[in-house]
Design goal:
By secondary structure, the chain is α/β, with parallel strands linked by helices. Helices cover 52% and strands 12% of the residues. The longest helix has 34 residues, at 101-134.
Length: 186
């Protein structure tokens, strides 16, 4: 029995292309999941692995290697489990089918390349963030409380303005005001 597994990372994507390819490959049952590939805890993948019957004619079919594994180590872990249970594996995009010796070899080569590619993406992202920080840019949400707003709130509070009114005057909530001006600083 061919068991398909399709995964997308965000709700803005669709499983349609993967499902179409899995159906064309003769999958009798298809599991779908929306989760980041970097997450180790993927409940639907765990469900698929539990669904596969050891020492049967079951085969796990995926559209692409990166849909099933988050890293080379994770892919090897999955493949070892499938191998121990006598379950075949097929990746449609990379044309890997562990029923053949060439498929087993290609699986190892493609797994290493996938890990290499992911590492390159991480390195480029880190280099970009480092370059941005060197130029004085930082990520994240802009500060709600500027130095001018903090000084204005201190003046309002010193003149007897209630905290709620002082927060409203500078356009922030009371908890934000308290976070930036703890009791000792007011």
């Amino acid at each position: 029995m061919n068991i398909g597994y399709a995964r997308i990372s965000t709700d803005k994507q669709t499983h349609d292309a993967q499902i179409g390819a899995l159906k064309a490959a003769g999958c009798d049952k298809i599991f779908t999941e929306t989760a980041s590939g970097s997450k180790k805890d993927r409940p639907v993948l765990a469900e698929v692995m539990a669904y596969l019957r050891p020492n049967s004619d079951d085969k796990l079919v995926v559209y692409k290697l990166d849909r099933v594994a988050r890293s080379l180590a994770h892919l090897i872990e999955i493949m070892e489990r499938l191998n121990e249970d006598g379950i075949e594996f097929q990746s449609l995009t990379e044309a890997i089918d562990t029923k053949t010796s060439a498929g087993r070899l290609l699986y190892h080569v493609m797994g290493a390349i996938s890990a290499f590619e992911r590492d390159l993406v991480i390195e480029r992202t880190q280099a970009g963030l480092k370059a941005a920080r060197a130029k004085g840019r930082i990520g994240g949400r802009p500060r709600r409380m500027t130095d001018d707003k903090i000084n204005a709130v201190r003046e309002l509070l010193a003149s007897g303005t209630p905290v709620k009114d002082a927060a409203a005057a500078v356009g922030v909530s009371v908890p934000t005001l308290y976070r930036w001006l703890p009791g000792a600083a007011r």
